[in-house]
Amino acid sequence: MFSSTLVRLRTHLAAAALGTAFIASAGSVGFAQQEINIEFSSSAVDANWGVMIQAMRDSMEEIGKELNATFTLNVSDAGLNVDKQISDIQTATVKQPDVLIIDPVDPAGVLPAAQAAKAAGIKLFTIRTAASDPAGLYDGAFETNLEPVYAANLTTWIEGLLAADPALKIKAGILYGAAAQEPQLIRGDVVKTIAAAHPDQVEVVAEKFADWSLETAQNATTDFITAHPDINLIVAANNQMAMGAANAIATAGKTGQVMVATYDIDRPTVQAIIDGKLTFTTSVEFRSYGRAILLGVAQIAQGNYPGTLDVKPIWTVTKDNAAEVLPQLAP
Fold first, then answer.
1. Most distant CA pair in the chain: distance in Å?
2. Preceding peptide of 313 cis, ω within 30°
3. What is the pairing mode between strands 259-262 and 170-176?
4. What single DSSP character describes residue 132?
């Protein structure tokens, strides 16, 4: 671990043999810690991202000891405005951080700014990749690797419902996040795939991009219910939108009649499953997100990133196990 770290430490090693001797005793001779400066351009800092960012800060001491590093982290909030994010990335580039994290509002829209940062010698990490990203632009990525797992978990759950009740007819509404954020589209598209495989039992009757917003999802779900009174499943791409859907369902007097499936794990989400407001979720905790991202970004800065992030566990929660899962989640 220390061999790659030493490249960036302010030491006065003059020979490889001496360097080897210092590597063996690095913990006892007090080498200067590497300073890793991180800029994080967020698409929007909502409640979920706030927990993740705080987890990054909370993990700095632990990971710093592990990697003999110290960290600075500056976060900018684009508020889902691509022009604001382009400006944020440009400002971060001027600061010359060791790693720039980009959570793109619109991957194509921010691409020139990201390429300029890369040309300036800054290492880049993205929360979400896109088909439009040139090969080699990003030194590491995150959510893209998890989306297929989430989709498989939702597929297993829905197909389990169909197998348990061959007479079941699912009328589904889909609440996507932001249109330009491609990887999350699989969260809703999986329902369309299931409908294609089971056309006699599953039909997608409504869909909307709700921009990760509780209020927008609540209004959309109200529209879904009005247009399709027999709708009985809402699939929401995050827990904030799922709670908005649950609010609309409650207002319509249909709690317990319309299932709500989503993709985030935290105590409020699991408690909502226990309370019967939500039905299904699958994901990792946002605190796990934060720690994994900080570790991966640090490894990128030090040149020893393994290519994947160690994020676990990936939970699947229904009412059957929600009470068991709840105590295991961070308060």
1. 76
2. yes
3. unpaired
4. T
3-state secondary structure of 23: helix
Q: Which of 246, 213, 300, 312 is nearest to 5 (CA)?
A: 300
> Which residues form the domain of 67?
2-19+33-142+286-310
- Joined together, the tokens standing for residue 140 give 């590491």
Domain ends where: 283, 302, 325? 283
In a domain, 326, yes or no: no
Domain count, the chain: 2
CB distance 274 to 248 below 8 Å:
no
Per the listing, tokens 């793109």 go with 104
DSSP 75-93: EEE-TT-HHHHHHHHHHHH
pLDDT tens, position by position, 250-308: 999 999 999 999 999 999 999 999 999 999 999 989 888 899 999 999 999 999 999 88
Between the CA atoms of 301, 302, 304 and 310, what dihedral angle is there, to the nearest 10 degrees?
Answer: -60
In sign, the C-alpha dihedral spanning 22, 27, 32, 34 is positive
Looking up tokens 């209020």 gives: 215
